[in-house]
Write a structure and sequence with these properties.
The complex is a heterodimer of chains A (about 230) and B (about 120). Chain A has about 230 residues and is α/β, with parallel strands linked by helices. Chain A folds into two domains: about 100 residues, HPT domain (Four Helix Bundle (Hemerythrin (Met), subunit A)), CATH 1.20.120; about 110 residues, Rossmann fold, CATH 3.40.50. Helices cover about 60% and strands about 10% of the residues of chain A. Chain A is built from nine helices and five strands, in the order ααααβαβαβαβαβα. Chain A has a five-stranded parallel beta sheet with strand order 2-1-3-4-5, sandwiched between helices. In chain A, helix 7 links the parallel strand 3 and strand 4. In chain A, helix 1 packs antiparallel against helix 2, helix 1 packs antiparallel against helix 4 and helix 5 crosses helix 9. Chain A is elongated. Chain B has a single domain, classed as Response regulator (Rossmann fold, 3-Layer(aba) Sandwich). Chain B is globular and about 30 Å long. Chain B is of the alpha/beta class and about 120 residues long. Chain B is built from five helices and seven strands. The chains are: A alpha/beta (about 230), B alpha/beta (about 120). At the A-B interface, helix 1, helix 2, helix 3 and helix 8 of A face helix 1 and helix 5 of B.
């Protein structure tokens, strides 16, 4: 997934800008164009995992859905113009990220692990065990801290708790994919195995492990992800 | 032998992203950008068809229903769209298809889902 996102990132932003330009130009003349362009953008952003762009485009799409048969009101046009401008900013931000030099990538000899967990006690226990297992480990207890750590530490593996208070799990994972390039994503939770599997599948994680299995099992699982020697 | 997958979508970018990702995951993949391209392919020769729903000249669920119930195609068919999942579920069920996948769930989840569907 990471490779595909890197491979198509500039094509995606160019196409998105074209779509948004056409939508904005057609807002008063032909609102059905707005629907079609937002529909295309929401799908392309969704499959690429750019969830904020996809969600924002979907909000505009919902507004424009009725315009295929009825004329928009001026209030609706204004609201839609705001959404289009927000999307332009988000796509612009993505373009700037793509233009920036890539973050340093951990080498096989220095594997870094990031533990995202709101319980400081659990986070530190996991981090200590990871250090004992040869990882450089850091912890984060919120979305902002997690993204900042992902950018700075360039982790090889991210252990992410499903139930971080006030954080939408899928959004967190999508942002981690954006900022922790190439990191393996492991979902960790006290949920049932079925729930864990579902969460992992939804976010395209590399694996999942139940908290109830205990710290040694979690560490063994993380180590097994690197059994072939790749970082 | 790897499974053969056909992707039908009006977005060229979408087709290229999904095709490259599926090939990278070990599948064979072909694409159709419109009805003409779709008609030139033997749909029955694919193990799975990912069918976009809202395309300029056709509704994917209508095409899929004809394919399944009139032409007797045995390929598995999934609707592939960013319409709300509940709407996709109804459309897939009414057309007698094998299910749906929401583009909002991303590429990794798509590959996982396809592997499950194809066993």
């Amino acid at each position: 997934m990471t490779d595909i996102r890197q491979q198509f990132r500039s094509r995606f932003t160019a196409t998105a800008n074209e779509r948004l330009r056409r939508a904005l130009a057609s807002l008063h003349a032909d609102p059905t164009v707005v629907y079609n362009e937002l529909h295309g953008l929401a799908g392309e952003a969704g499959i690429m995992g750019f969830s904020e762009i996809s969600t924002t485009a979907a909000a505009g799409l919902e507004l424009a859905r009725a315009w295929r048969t009825t004329k928009p009101t001026s209030d609706q046009q204004l609201q839609c113009a705001r959404i289009l401008r927000s999307l332009m900013m988000l796509v612009g931000e993505l373009q700037r990220t793509a233009a920036a030099p890539p973050p340093p990538v951990a080498t096989p000899s220095v594997r870094r692990a990031l533990v995202i967990e709101d319980s400081e006690l659990i986070a530190e226990e996991l981090a200590d065990a990871l250090r004992d297992a040869g990882f450089e480990a850091s912890t984060a207890g919120s979305m902002d801290a997690a993204i900042a750590s992902a950018r700075e530490a360039a982790p090889s593996v991210v252990l992410v708790d499903v139930n971080l208070p006030g954080v939408e799990f899928r959004t967190l994972c999508a942002r981690l994919r954006d900022h922790a390039h190439g990191a393996k994503l492991v979902v960790v939770s006290a949920s049932s195995e079925d729930e864990l599997r579902r969460h992992a599948r939804e976010v395209g994680a590399d694996g999942y492990v139940g908290k109830l299995r205990g710290t040694p099992s979690i560490i063994a699982y993380v180590k097994s992800l690197f059994a072939s020697g790749e970082a | 032998m790897s499974h053969r997958i056909l992707i039908v979508d009006d977005s060229v970018l979408m087709l290229e992203i999904v095709r490259d990702a599926l090939v990278g995951a070990g599948f064979e993949a072909a694409t159709a950008n419109n009805l003409t391209e779709f008609e030139q392919l033997d749909a029955s020769s694919f193990d799975l068809i990912l069918m976009d729903v809202q395309m300029p000249e056709l509704y994917g669920d209508d095409v899929a229903a004809v394919l399944r119930h009139v032409r007797g195609a045995t390929s598995r068919i999934l609707l592939f769209s960013n319409l709300p999942p509940e709407e996709l579920a109804v459309r897939a069920q009414e057309a007698g298809l094998d299910g749906y996948f929401s583009k909002r769930d991303g590429m990794d989840a798509l590959i996982t889902h396809i592997r499950q569907v194809l066993g």
